[in-house]
Amino acid sequence: MPRNIIKIEINNELDAVLAYKRAMQLSENLGVAMVGQTKFATAVSEICRNVVEHVGCGQIALNVTEEAGTHYLEAVVTDRGRGIADAECLVQDGAGSFHSRGNGLANSRKLVDFFDIESSPEKGTAVTLRLRLPRNAPVVTKSVADKWLQHFEYETSVSPYAEIKKQNIKLLELLEQLRLRNLETEQQLQEIRRLNKQLHTSNQEISQLLEEREKKNLLLQKINKELDSFAHTVSHDLRGPLQNINGLTLALEACIKANHLGEAEEMFPMLRQQTYKMDRLITSILAYSLAGHSSIPKKVIDIHILLHLVITSLSVPANFKIEVDPDMPVLYTQEVYLYQVFSNIIGNAIKYHDTPEQGLVEIKYKLLDDFIEFTIQDNGPGIPQEVQENIFDMYDTGASLGRTDSTGLGLSIVKKIILEKGGRVWVTSAGRGSTFVFTWPVAELVPENQD
Amino acid sequence: MEKIPILRMGPFLLVTIQVDLYDQLALNLENDLISSISKTGAKGVLIDISALDIVDSFMGRILSNIASMSRLMDAGTVVVGMQPAVAITLVELGLKLHGVYTALTIEKGIALLQQQFTLRTSGQEEDTSSQDE
């Protein structure tokens, strides 16, 4: 089993020189005497020069091999030429002459212990030379061979050409490695690009989701706020009838205790009226709460009748006058909305009046291009300029006006409803008296000729 | 371009081959030597091959060529400092270095050339016979 030690590509004469130098060094390493070394190296040189001269390129492999118990240093020189016709004949005949190809073969044959030539037009030529190694030749293990190779690597004295060739080979190897690494990098780059793209898309998706979430959050916050104000509204509006019921039950109790059964009996319809009112309110408020989500069914409403209902539901003090313009429109709209608006504004006018015995509230309406404008004017104490701005905001009441029975929700409910309907609400007040104005979409006006 | 230096030593030229010969280098050496001989009128060429590990048929041919050319230019050629192993190899190969004299050292080579030189100046007939060794 031959063990290869070194392979050298032969492309020119300097490679042939390198080949015989290596052959010499190896035979020296293997303990061959000087003459033996020289003979073998000369033989190698002859064959390699042949290759350079007649074929141009080939390869030499220097091996250590064994046959029938004898160890040999072996040089196998191969080329890819068209082969040598009648190689055996050339080997025999060419001896001693300087000029034919045969002389190289014949010469080298004389110098080695074993010579073999195989040649075919297809496979080219392979020449095997063997040099018998002395008995005390070192055993060539892989590590030994590697050490020699390393030695060859570091040895610079052979020739500048060998050095250049060595470096060239190294460079070529490096280039190949670089090419491979480049390919790898290219692949990795593509992978990275792909991942980047993916990341980009998922990023976009995420930002879209975030945006959606933000929107939903805002919506949720709005709904939450509405829910909050709704709770306040409920408590605010339910308090009135509840207080009435409370008063009535107290009166009822007193009557029963005093055994005035006749009077007590009269109170029951009043009680029922209050509960009925409360029920109506609850129904209305529920409907109102649904306004943000789904529309409350509209119906035809005569404002006169509505205002009458509102005024009767409010506890109007004696002598407190409420004048309603006889010319009031009929609207096709949500009753509960209008009811709430009028009830709150008129209720406020009554509640905050400083001289209720002379109180006067006038309710008018005007038809504009796009809106119906309702005006509720009172002769109350008026509203200071600095309060007017925030009067429609939730909680912004009470303290400044010195009242404790106000929840401060009334006008905020009004504002909410008006905004919901796409209208405006404002107040003007200078000195005594305030005027609340709100607009309602003209589209909901029922033409008079339909009545 | 690599060049093999040619030194002048009195009437002779000294060439020390320390690098391995290849075609172009050998061709250059031949040219340089011939022009040097013609320029200097040197009567002999000493080629020191003590640094060569091997002399194969190619190098043998070069040496032989140089000797033939020098002879045509009326100068003798002596190869000196051949390694014993190289000599043995040459013998085993059966290579004959036609027209080449050999000497062990440069001094002996010079002596050989001087002897030839004097021989030649004394008589032309002996000259030709001694060259065909």
Report the structural category of chain B: alpha/beta
| Number of helices, counting only DSSP H or I runs of 4 residues or more of chain B | 5
Number of domains of chain B: 1
Quick check: average pLDDT of chain A? 82
Which SSEs are present, and which pair or pack?
The complex is a heterodimer of chains A (about 450) and B (about 130).
Chain A: E1 3-10, H1 13-29, H2 34-54, E2 58-67, E3 70-79, H3 87-93, H4 101-111, E4 114-120, E5 124-132, H5 142-154, H6 160-257, H7 261-290, E6 299-302, H8 303-313, E7 321-324, E8 330-333, H9 335-351, E9 360-367, E10 371-378, H10 385-388, H11 410-420, E11 425-429, E12 434-441
Parallel strand pairs in A: 7-9
Antiparallel strand pairs in A: 1-2, 2-3, 3-5, 4-5, 6-8, 9-10, 10-12, 11-12
Helix pairs in contact in A: 1-2, 2-4, 3-4, 6-7, 8-9, 9-11
Chain B: E1 6-9, E2 12-16, H1 23-40, E3 44-48, H2 57-72, E4 76-80, H3 84-93, E5 101-103, H4 106-122, H5 124-131
Parallel strand pairs in B: 2-3, 3-4, 4-5
Antiparallel strand pairs in B: 1-2
Give a short synopsis of this structure.
The complex is a heterodimer of chains A (451) and B (133). With 451 residues, chain A is an alpha+beta fold.
Description:
The complex is a heterodimer of chains A (451) and B (133). Chain A is of the alpha+beta class and 451 residues long. Among the domains of chain A are: 156 residues, Heat Shock Protein 90; 146 residues, 2-Layer Sandwich (Heat Shock Protein 90). Chain A contains eleven helices and twelve strands. In chain A, strand 4 and strand 5 form a beta hairpin. In chain A, helix 1 packs antiparallel against helix 2, helix 2 packs antiparallel against helix 4 and helix 3 crosses helix 4. The longest helix of chain A has 98 residues. The radius of gyration of chain A is 58 Å and the shape is rod-shaped. About 4% of the residues of chain A have low confidence. Chain B is an alpha/beta fold and 133 residues long. Chain B has one domain: 2-Layer Sandwich (Transcription Regulator spoIIAA). Chain B is built from five helices and five strands; from the N terminus they run E-E-H-E-H-E-H-E-H-H. A five-stranded mixed β-sheet of chain B has the order 1-2-3-4-5, with helices on both faces. In chain B, a hairpin with a 2-residue loop joins strand 1 and strand 2. Chain B is globular. Chains A and B meet through helix 1, helix 2 and helix 4 of A and helix 2 and helix 3 of B.
